[in-house]
Amino acid sequence: MRSTITIVVNGSKRRIVCEQGQEEHLQHAGRYLDRRVREMKGNVGAIADSELLVLTALMLVDDLSDKQGKIKELERLVQEQKDTGIDKTRSSAASLEIPLEEPRLERMAMRIEHLAKIFAER
Known about the structure:
By secondary structure, this protein is of the alpha+beta class. The chain has helices at about 25-45, 50-85, 85-95, 100-120, and strands at about 1-10, 10-20. Strand 1 (about 1-10) and strand 2 (about 10-20) form a beta hairpin.
């Protein structure tokens, strides 16, 4: 079943059709997009909406690329931990300023894998 929500981006209302149950997630995404569009508008000034949205999309893709690189590095650290033990992983994580706690490591790895799948699907 489908639902329709309304998001506001740069002062313009947009109706979005989504799967039922995704409304809250898309509302959150819409608010995030609106903040980023307004941030870009503050940086570049008055430009056409289409250009503003393209620049914002490029900024978001760049951010996503950075996050994917960090996810890959975290996945490497998790694999290193599995292969060689926690001590070597601690030193690698420390160089990245990533705090590791043994009880949370497996949950963190599962979350990283989940996020990687979500980003890959988009």
